[in-house]
Specification:
Keywords: Amino-acid biosynthesis, Cytoplasm, Diaminopimelate biosynthesis, Lyase, Lysine biosynthesis, Schiff base. By secondary structure, the chain is of the alpha/beta class. The protein contains 13 helices and eight strands. The protein has a single domain (4-225), classed as TIM Barrel. Strand 4, helix 4 (112-125) and strand 5 form a beta-alpha-beta unit. Helix 6 (145-151) packs parallel to helix 7 (168-177).
């Protein structure tokens, strides 16, 4: 089971929106050095919605090659078309990814039965560990604990990223799935409590900016050391909030660029962080000791 600080990696781009492989390698090396436990390549934070399929799969393969076995690589392969999600998942397996992360279909708002059949079809089509991803604030549908419980019985489905911030779901899902099913939070602000309640880690945006601190906080929480986890998280609370001051990944890409790890590139319809939001992000970075 992949556990701990799993960074939802930003996709570095040049100012004209092209993928920047030089900076991508720099980011991979940064996370290896900082103790990040795993990387998600081209998740939603990695602007999966605006990369075409070939670009998407090239970035996955590039991250796998750069990591070179030093940590697990999880590929973002979700889509609101089941056939497309299967195709992306097949290509991620061919690229050498260790697992796949599949966001719930967005906009078309499937029923719980539709969600079940969507994920079941992908799991039956591609033999690779697959992690469900529930973020209703971005997708318009909520993958309920009961449906996660059903899906946990499907071969190849090994965990869920639960990004609602509803801490009661840790116990609800655990009771329906068992100890071998991985529970990850996708909500940085509640990641400390999520892991103290028995979660297996965080698929994190904050970890792009303060990876060592985030790793150490989650490790303390997962071993039940509340005092240490709270002391470390106190330095991260500003990032947990300011990195969402505008739509993700706008603020986090600005922060990573400010750290000198990549240039100022993002794809429309997203735009660069506006001047009025810069100081809150910068102050949060100071609080976390990364400037």
């Amino acid at each position: 089971m992949i556990q701990g600080s799993i960074v939802a990696l930003v996709t570095p781009m040049t100012e004209d929106g092209a993928v920047d492989n030089v900076s991508l390698k720099k980011l991979v090396e940064f996370h290896v050095e900082q103790g990040t436990d795993a990387l998600v390549a081209v998740g939603t934070t990695g602007e999966s919605a605006t990369l075409d399929e070939d670009e998407h799969c090239r970035v996955i393969k590039t991250v796998v090659d750069y990591v070179a076995g030093r940590m697990p690589v999880i590929a973002g392969t979700g889509a609101n078309c089941t056939r497309e999600a299967i195709r992306l998942t097949q290509r991620a397996k061919q690229a050498g990814a260790d697992a796949c992360l599949l966001v719930t279909p967005y906009y078309n708002k499937p029923t719980q039965e539709g969600l079940y059949l969507h994920y079941k079809a992908i799991a039956e089509a591609v033999d690779i560990p697959q992690i469900l991803y529930n973020v209703p604030g971005r997708t318009g549908c909520d993958l309920l604990p009961e449906t996660v419980g059903r899906l946990s019985q499907v071969e190849n489905i090994v965990g869920v990223k639960e990004a609602t911030g509803k801490l009661e779901r840790v116990k609800q899902i655990r009771d329906l799935t068992g100890e071998d099913f991985a529970l990850y939070t996708g909500d940085d602000a509640t990641s400390l409590e999520f892991c103290l309640l028995g979660g297996n880690g965080s698929i994190t945006v904050t970890g792009n900016v303060a990876p060592r601190l985030l790793h150490d906080m989650l490790a303390a929480a997962m071993r039940g050391d509340r005092a240490t986890a709270e002391a470390l998280d106190a330095k991260l609370t500003g990032l947990h909030s300011s990195l969402f001051i505008q739509s993700n990944p706008i603020p986090v890409k600005w922060a990573v660029a400010e750290m000198g790890l990549m240039g100022k590139g993002i794809r429309l319809p997203l735009t660069w962080l506006t001047d009025d939001c810069i100081e809150p992000v910068r102050e949060a970075m100071r609080q976390a000791g990364v400037l």
